[in-house]
Design brief:
Blueprint: H1 3-28, E1 32-33, E2 37-42, E3 51-56, E4 59-64, H2 65-81, H3 89-105, E5 108-111, H4 113-119, H5 121-133, E6 137-140, E7 146-147, E8 149-160, E9 163-171, E10 180-186
Parallel strand pairs: 3-5
Antiparallel strand pairs: 1-8, 2-8, 3-4, 4-6, 6-7, 8-9, 9-10
Length: about 190
């Protein structure tokens, strides 16, 4: 095979890849968006002896300390057993240490933005979403009123192959801005 023939074959392969990528992009130009599904979750009126307070968008979300501790211990195991999360080990350790110290002083632990960052926002939001689904949280609005109803929106959009989002949004009744957004997948 001559050098000219091999260059021609390489050129044709590159051209084919470019054309295929353009075709995929053109096919994906029409945005796919589902019709969001809305439903209402009824939360029980519960109280916790030891609790964790997390403020999100003018809403206070309260979890029981044992549930939150369980979440952190599960997260700790994932972090220590996953090479990808190796650099997060010290963050998780410091969060657990801080919470134990705070628990010695009070039955209420407040999670600030620094701790949210150390835990990891997506992981924390996923935990909160799961606990709402399990009906194991207390939700209090900016006026300090406990809400026993939460509106859940399940939706997704897909603009093209590498531009999409799917997840859940949680709203308080009569408030148009979600207090919590849980990402389930992104592309």
């Amino acid at each position: 095979m001559t050098i000219l023939t091999s260059r021609y074959l390489i050129f044709m392969k590159k051209l084919t890849v470019i054309l295929l990528l353009n075709l995929i992009h053109l096919c994906g130009d029409a945005q796919q968006k589902n019709t969001p599904k809305f439903d209402t979750l009824e939360l029980p009126k519960i109280e916790f002896k030891k609790m964790v307070l997390i403020q999100e968008n003018n809403t206070i979300i309260i979890s029981s300390y044992p549930d939150f501790k369980n979440f952190l211990n599960t997260l700790k195991l994932k972090v220590f057993n996953t090479i990808y999360l190796k650099n997060r080990r010290n963050d998780i350790k410091s969060v657990i240490k801080f919470i134990k110290l705070q628990l010695n002083q009070s039955d209420t632990i407040r999670i600030n933005d620094k701790l949210k960052h150390q835990i990891g926002f997506p992981l924390l939001y996923s935990y909160l979403g799961t606990m709402i689904e399990k009906k194991k949280l207390i939700i209090i609005d900016a006026k300090e009123i406990q809400h026993l109803k939460v509106i859940r929106e399940q939706s997704f959009y897909q603009n093209d192959v590498l531009n999409g989002w799917g997840g859940r949004k949680y709203y308080l009744p009569d408030i148009k801005t979600p207090f919590l957004i849980v990402t389930e997948w992104v592309s």
